[in-house]
Design a protein that fits this description.
Radius of gyration: 16 Å
Distance between the termini: 8 Å
CATH architecture: 3-Layer(aba) Sandwich
Structural class: alpha/beta
Number of strands: 8
CATH topology: Rossmann fold
CATH class: Alpha Beta
């Protein structure tokens, strides 16, 4: 059983998917974390993110692996656990920009599909239901208003003790939405058979329950 959850940044995909996977005893696969790991490597090595050829040339040096400890997903970049280091706005923006490159997407596609073929998974990202797992039994398009998403991201950063400016975050989310929806390769869009779940006025528990009900019906 595969559950594909797509949607824009800050809609709550990872939070909802993690909780639902735990309740259903599925494997949670955060594809965005994989792209963030690549973004982190490129930032560390001062690669020009606007130079697609330069990015593609460094990909053979990068190994991204997903592991699980006590039911929690951990992301490894060339053997280093970078699960915490990839959760910054700078890395997120780098991931958004470089995930538009065909070579980057191709590098991770096989790994993502292999995970889904081997076990029950909940996978979230931007193109799961449309490209990565087009035959997923359940497809969800999780969204929320820009204002709500910006507020959530702002609170997340403040809770982690990070400096944050709400208006800057809002602008960056709008810019990221545009990039994700207008890239040539695998743009963010709702799969034709996906069910839209708007979490603007939902708690995490309510969103989880809504998707659980949809999954039960599809199953």
């Amino acid at each position: 059983m595969n559950i594909a959850i797509d949607g824009p940044a800050g809609a709550g995909k990872s939070t909802v998917a993690k909780q639902l996977a735990k309740e259903l005893k599925y494997i949670y696969v955060d594809t965005g974390a994989m792209y963030r790991a690549i973004g982190l490597y490129l930032i560390r090595n001062k690669v020009d993110l606007d130079d697609e050829a330069a990015v593609a040339a460094r990909l053979p040096e990068i190994q991204v692996r997903i592991g699980y400890r006590r039911g929690e997903q951990h992301v490894y970049l060339n053997g280093e656990n970078v699960s915490r280091r990839i959760r910054t706005q700078k890395v997120g923006n780098a991931a958004s920009k470089t995930s538009a490159y065909g070579a980057v997407r191709g590098k991770l596609l096989d790994l993502q599909r292999a995970l889904a073929a081997e076990q029950d998974v909940i996978m979230d990202g931007r193109d799961i239901g449309t490209v990565v797992l087009p035959d997923a039994e359940v497809k969800i398009y999780l969204t929320a208003s820009v204002d709500v998403r910006a507020e959530r991201r702002y609170l997340e950063y403040r809770e982690k003790g990070m400096d944050a400016d709400l208006e800057t975050i809002r602008r960056e989310i709008e810019e990221r939405d545009y990039r994700d929806m207008h890239r040539e390769i695998a743009p963010l869009k709702r799969a034709e058979d996906a069910v839209v779940v708007d979490t603007s006025d939902m708690t995490v528990d309510q969103a989880v329950e809504a998707i659980r009900a949809i999954a039960a019906q599809r199953a």
